[in-house]
Amino acid sequence: MEHAITANGDLYVWDMQTRYISGMVALTKEEMKTPRCIVKQAVHTDLDSSTSFSIDQDGYLWSWGECQYGELGQGESYIKSSSPTIIADHVAKFYRSHDRGEPTMYALKTDGTLWAWGYNQYGAVGNGTTETVSIPTKVLDHVKTFTCTACPSNGAFDTYTNAFALREDDSLWAWGYNDEGNLGNGTTESVLSPVKILDDVAEIETNVQMHTNLSFAIKKDGSLWGWGYNLYGQLCTGNTEPVLLPVKITDDVKDYSSVYATLYFVKQDNTLWGSGFNISSFSNDQPELTPPVLLQENIDHIQIIDDTVFSFGTDGSLSICGYNDVVQINDGFDSPYEIDRRKILDNVAWIDGECGDIFAMTNDGKLMNFSIVAIYDGKVQPTEPAEIPLPLT
Predict the structure, then answer these.
(1) Is residue 369 a part of any domain in this protein?
(2) Which one-letter DSSP state was computed for residue 211?
(3) Are 318 and 312 in contact (CB under 8 A)?
(4) Same domain, yes or no, for 60 and 195?
(5) Per the omega criterion (within 30 degrees of 0), is the bond before 292 cis?
């Protein structure tokens, strides 16, 4: 959505956003082009075509727009064209579930309390009911990090929210939609209030791409744990049966990433491993039910952009090392691609972008650009990196 934050933090909007502000419904197209300040001293924005939010420097959470299931948190299930309104104070972070149905909203306050409101048919709010919640409601105390995802509904187009909170005592709690067991509480029933599923957790990640419905956590001792759908054997149980309780995948993990039907992880000895349907030319067209080592080189960490897996070496080198584009053939899976596994650049600090247009910054301040090219009769390979002169003008 069209918006800008000025140097002093004032939030200006124009075009479609203006029609959700009270008294501006009848603006002409020309009037809608005029930027209008709606929140002073904003430090965070989350703008959508209908429901929008902003946190100002004093920690007040503002909302405006229209909703049908209380998503704006203004006390009514259905509101249209409301003025920007404060709905919570002392807010540190705001989260939106981004599902394809009606989303659930969350706010983590500076005192560690987690608040939720909005769509609640499967208990995503976490208040013990399935009724719509139209004002922020406290769900949990002593929360230090939080994540929420929109899970596919058993092959249907709609998605529904599940939520995970990591508390200050390093315990992991979950609630919400649970049709594939991806909450890790031992059932496939929706969970209406937070339940503890794991202790001594360092970080949590969820993966719901293409109906995978998986969750992963690294414990403080470096062990990697997972639970959920497991259709391609990503959880390394030796089969493809759903896993309803957290199961340990491996030890000594320092980095991991999950994409589509594959799990990649880097161990403390700097080796790269993978499991699941590993379309990366490391294995054949069958799922790897137990994790093989993929690269025995000095791998520091990995990053996945679109379908391509990149590895960062301990020496600062960047290499292409995997590809996850999958084609379904006769009820099985295959890929028309092979990988030209080779080094792309040295001395790399970070990369970002899309596969057709990737940017890399070197540690000595050079900005480089390259693309990933799929050649059907040969390899998937990167183009030759080109330097972009700095400063940009």
Answers:
(1) no
(2) G
(3) yes
(4) no
(5) no
